[in-house]
């Protein structure tokens, strides 16, 4: 698979605030679904859905211990990368968000007129 496509798939996986909350909670430890549900306040089905997506995208890996499944980050460097992106996001001015913003970025519209 092309490197740009892999990066796109990773960013699409990480482009959900619930998934980012889950990753942030898991951090450097292993967590069960019930721990994640309690910490995030999300419903169990919603957490399970996002965990499945993160696992299928190879962001998380699992370990079974008896009847419990524990989730952990596959690569701890993701936490550092997300920290950098968080700093960049903090430096961006708050502006009113509109739906066209997510259709195509301003630079794209200007370049392809």
Query: Strand order, biggest sheet?
Result: 1-3-2
How does the overall form come out from the CA principal axes?
globular
User: How many runs of DSSP E, i.e. beta strands?
Assistant: 3
Biggest sheet layout: 3 strands, antiparallel
The second-level CATH architecture is: Orthogonal Bundle
Low-confidence stretches: 107-113
By CATH reckoning, the class would read Mainly Alpha
Question: What would you say this structure looks like, in words?
Answer:
There is one protein chain. This protein has 113 residues and is of the alpha+beta class. It has one domain (3-83): Arc Repressor Mutant, subunit A (Orthogonal Bundle), CATH 1.10.10.10. The protein is built from six helices and three strands. The protein has helices at residues 3-14, 17-26, 33-40, 44-56, 77-90, 106-111; strands at residues 31-32, 60-65, 68-73. A three-stranded antiparallel beta sheet has the order 1-3-2. Helix 3 (33-40) packs across helix 4 (44-56). It is globular and about 45 Å long. Residues 107-113 have low confidence and may be disordered.
């Amino acid at each position: 698979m092309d490197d740009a496509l892999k990066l796109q798939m990773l960013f699409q996986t990480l482009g959900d605030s619930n998934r980012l909350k889950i990753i942030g909670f898991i951090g450097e430890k292993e967590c069960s679904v019930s721990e994640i549900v309690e910490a995030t306040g999300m419903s169990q089905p919603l957490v399970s859905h996002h965990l499945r997506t993160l696992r299928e995208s190879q962001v998380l890996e699992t370990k079974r211990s008896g009847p419990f499944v524990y989730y952990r980050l596959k690569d701890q460097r993701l936490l550092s990368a997300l920290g950098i992106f968080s700093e960049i996001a903090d430096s961006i001015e708050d502006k009113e968000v509109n739906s066209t913003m997510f259709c195509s970025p301003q630079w794209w519209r200007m370049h392809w007129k």
